[in-house]
Design goal:
Blueprint (H helix, E strand, L loop, with lengths): L2 H19 L2 H40 L1
Helix pairs in contact: 1-2
Length: 64
């Protein structure tokens, strides 16, 4: 499990526990953890896309 997926899963669990116990702080922390996981996932995707673009440009340079 990737770091972003782990953050999202832990956040969801924390949010649900907060809802079940009426603990607003825990519920809010869970939502924040989920947002952190989504942000990490977006950054990982952006890095992969940038690498793909770099690889594509490298291929073009090799052919020139």
């Amino acid at each position: 499990m990737g770091e972003s997926a782990k953050d999202k899963a832990m956040g969801k669990a924390k949010e649900m526990a907060g809802k079940a116990t009426g603990n607003d702080r825990m519920k809010t922390e869970g939502k924040a953890d989920q947002a952190k996981g989504k942000t990490k996932g977006a950054m990982e995707n952006a890095k992969e896309r940038a690498k793909g673009v770099g690889d594509s440009l490298g291929d073009r340079r090799d052919r020139a």
